[in-house]
Specification:
The protein is an alpha/beta fold. Helices cover 49% and strands 17% of the residues. It folds into two domains: 114 residues, no CATH class; 241 residues. It is built from 19 helices and seven strands. The longest helix has 22 residues.
């Protein structure tokens, strides 16, 4: 339990403070306290190292003694702090609270990482630290602070996963990356799973030149090597070859095409004046009570709109095998799986972070920022609506493929 500071001590400290600046300004009380506390701790460390307190007779004849101090400036959340680091005559003292070679205190790197995770460029971070703390930070220091995250990213990307995921959303977002002297659009592949407990979990991030079924197969195989044995439902966009890629890795998985993606593709060449008239007929297809009624609604749609927009009906027919699975489920599951909105909501959060970047210098920099955005920038998960009811349906429908959480606990 942290020590409680006596009220009279606080009153004495604040006696000379007339404004917030007296506390928070460059040489305000907080910074002075940090300096004095650190120096006191450093001297306590030296006393422990030597085995006696300063001025004690016990130190005579021990073969080692205090030998003054040297100046060192370290960076902290309150700006640059000038410290007097004590030393011993034999040069064997190694401070732990401010180790040799360290120029910034614990927490300062996290401040840099937090700013970086919010999409700020190196130059913007420099300006922010200069304005807030009157500290000049080199681009190299910022790079080192963020590079330290790469090992954490690698561990996260290779961590073991759940045995079964009831639902996994697979989608990609585009980022600009400098590659061989050119700025190219690259796809960041995102797998978002819902666990048996109803928790959303980003399973991984991958980068590739373009979104393609062949690379998705590689992603799915990687999920298997990390412990995923089964996915009940995979929700995907309309990418050609995607269902085949999923079937190659997880042959029992139901593939559900995102209806929103299908609607967007259908409306791509529809005039604005026709969209308002056409949408009710399209809604009749995907809001039907079952697959048979949906097919009838599609035929009615084509009879009405097929001559003017023949590609719409053809698009739905080609994807029909992956359109109809959600009709077999009750409303609480339908609402969850008929769209990739869950992962697109994640994409919106990530795009807010990367929108200030013109481009990334390499693939690693893009993955690093997106990982930090997930870790630091307040991306929030909400348990799916009616998850308890949905899970009960999953247990009934998928039987031995899904063991309830309550039973797994034993």
């Amino acid at each position: 339990m942290a020590a409680r500071i006596k009220t009279e001590v606080i009153d004495e400290l604040l006696a000379g403070c007339d404004s917030p600046a007296d506390l928070l300004a460059g040489d305000g009380l907080f910074k002075q306290l940090k300096k004095q506390l650190l120096e006191r701790l450093l001297n306590a460390e030296l006393s422990q190292h030597l085995g006696y307190e300063k001025g004690e007779a016990a130190g005579r004849g021990t073969g080692n003694s205090r030998n003054g101090s040297y100046a060192k400036t370290v960076l902290s959340d309150d700006g640059a702090v000038d410290l007097a680091i004590p030393r011993d005559r034999n040069g064997t003292f190694e401070p732990r609270i401010v180790p040799k070679g360290i120029r910034h205190l614990e927490g300062f790197d996290e401040r840099i990482i937090s700013l970086y995770a919010r999409g700020m460029s190196v130059r913007e971070i420099q300006g922010h630290l200069r304005e807030m703390y009157d500290v000049e930070v080199s681009p190299d220091l910022i790079s080192r602070a963020t590079e330290a995250v790469l090992e954490e990213l690698r561990e996260w990307q290779n961590r073991p996963l759940e045995r079964v995921y009831p639902v996994v959303f697979l989608d990609a977002l585009q980022v600009k990356v400098r590659d061989e002297g050119l700025v190219r659009n690259k796809a960041i592949y995102v797998a978002l799973g819902i666990t048996a407990a109803g928790e959303k979990e980003v399973l991984g991030l991958w980068v590739e030149q373009t979104e393609g079924a062949k690379f998705w197969l590689k992603v799915l195989n990687e999920l298997k090597t990390r412990g995923v044995e089964d996915i009940l439902i995979a929700v995907v966009d309309g990418l050609k070859g995607f269902p085949e890629a999923i079937a190659a890795s997880f042959p029992r998985t139901i593939v559900q095409t995102c209806i929103i993606h299908l609607i967007r593709a259908s409306l791509a060449f529809v005039s604005w004046k026709d969209r308002r008239l056409l949408m009710p007929d399209m809604k009749a297809v995907y809001r039907a009570e079952n697959a048979d009624v949906a097919w009838q609604a599609l035929e009615a749609f084509e009879a009405k709109w097929g001559k003017r927009y023949p590609t719409i009906g053809a698009t739905w027919r080609r994807a029909w095998e992956q359109v109809v699975p959600f009709f077999a489920f009750p409303p609480e599951i339908r609402r969850m799986i008929y769209t990739t909105n869950a992962v697109e909501s994640l994409h919106r959060s990530l795009r807010k972070i990367i929108k200030t970047r013109g481009s990334f210098p390499n693939d690693e920099a893009a993955l690093k920022l997106l990982y930090l955005a997930l870790r630091n920038a307040g991306v929030r998960w909400h348990r799916p609506v009616a998850w308890t009811e949905a899970m009960a349906q999953f247990v009934i429908m998928f039987g031995d493929r899904l063991t309830p959480v309550s039973q797994r606990a034993g």
